[in-house]
Amino acid sequence: MRVLGIETSCDETGVALYDTDRGLLADALHSQVAMHADYGGVVPELASRDHTRRLLPLIDQVLSGAQLERTQLDAIAYTAGPGLVGALMVGASTAHGMARALGIPVLGVHHMEGHLLAPMLEDEPPAFPFVALLVSGGHTQLVQVDGIGCYQLLGESVDDAAGEAFDKAAKMLDLDYPGGPRVAALAEGGDPGRFRFPRPMTDRPGLDFSFSGLKTHTLTAIRQLEQAGQLDDQARADVARAFEEAVADTLAIKCRRALKQTGLTRLVVAGGVSANVRLRAKLEEATRKQGARAYYPRGRFCTDNGAMIAYAGAQRLIAGEKDTVGQMKAVPRWPMDQLSAP
Ligand code: ATP
Ligand code: MG
Ligand code: FE
């Protein structure tokens, strides 16, 4: 089955073609990052309009990359939520319109299920069951995954998501949006021994996270350096490093705890923050100590992309799942544990 995947939930227009026999055939992405950078974050209306401009050309690009005609598609999967409603509607209406014209099934996919299954596109995909750490711009969750659609939430952030914390720390350090990769780059030159930031909620049992206190801690550290006239480039790098170390350590401690609690030996890490090199190093150490193994998507499939949606959609479409004709789905809020097995 050849499935076209469409992702438009936020600020990336992603399109890909996945074949259930041959694997990923092609993928393309347009990031709106430069467009939103002037505003310091995603402007929803601008995002929707840009998805409208970019989506059809990207679909053509992916089809020609795979040397296929539209009529050779067997099904279409699109991100139905969670995300920005206007942005979601661009993908949903395009998918439904195309599917209607071609007379093929179409299915709305959960964006986080897409992130969660992205490592399945790699050469050595993890087998079920596993623990998944989802760390993105809007989510920080630990999930026990027993199969597709069998998700049990083990813990989540009670306030900011890890990616959101990175983005806010970046703003405090005068770095552009999106801040994650920029904080990481600045932290490279930082001294890990100069500041030690707290590892929130690691001193008590449980698998929930909280990153808002760490954000305040970062702001206080920056203000104190500023007032002392010591906020030079090295100090900014040292703060970035202390922040990154604290987030990565906290996530790694909770992952190890989740593996212990569930008795599972596979850890899947996905979402934008899973691209973070320091986090990966800490997770490698934590899983090794636990006799477990960590799995990640390739770099460009950590953040939003069409391939994860094509893959996740294909798993459900092949089982016969599909949207009702004419009923496109765009669900801004959609808890993942409401999903069920196909
Ligand atoms: P969600 O998936 O929860 O709806 P989203 O789609 O906006 O949110 P993603 O695209 O998965 O999130 O990830 C974007 C986030 O990842 C941003 O917050 C960004 O700062 C962060 N990020 C990306 N690369 C890195 C990195 N190398 N280190 C830390 N954070 C990173
Ligand atoms: Mg994004
Ligand atoms: Fe995402």
UniProtKB/TrEMBL annotation:
Entry's localization field: Cytoplasm
Keyword Lipoprotein: no
InterPro entries: ATPase_NBD, Gcp-like_dom, KAE1/TsaD, TsaD
Keywords, comma-separated and alphabetical: Acyltransferase, Cytoplasm, Iron, Metal-binding, Transferase, tRNA processing
Domain (Gcp-like) ranges: 24-311
Principal subcellular localisation of the protein: cytoplasm
tRNA processing among keywords: yes
GO cellular component, as recorded: cytoplasm
Matching CDD domains: ASKHA_NBD_TsaD_bac
Enzyme class, UniProt record, top EC level: transferase
Cofactor comment: Binds 1 Fe(2+) ion per subunit.
EC number, as in UniProt: 2.3.1.234
Binding site for Fe cation: 111, 115, 304
Cofactor(s) this protein requires: Fe(2+)
GO MF, one annotated term: tRNA N(6)-L-threonylcarbamoyladenine synthase activity
Record field: catalytic activity: L-threonylcarbamoyladenylate + adenosine(37) in tRNA = N(6)-L-threonylcarbamoyladenosine(37) in tRNA + AMP + H(+)
Binding-site residues for substrate, renumbered to this chain: 134-138, 167, 180, 276
Short name of any one Pfam family annotated for the protein: TsaD
Task performed by this protein: Required for the formation of a threonylcarbamoyl group on adenosine at position 37 (t(6)A37) in tRNAs that read codons beginning with adenine. Is involved in the transfer of the threonylcarbamoyl moiety of threonylcarbamoyl-AMP (TC-AMP) to the N6 group of A37, together with TsaE and TsaB. TsaD likely plays a direct catalytic role in this reaction.
Protein name: tRNA N6-adenosine threonylcarbamoyltransferase
Gene: tsaD
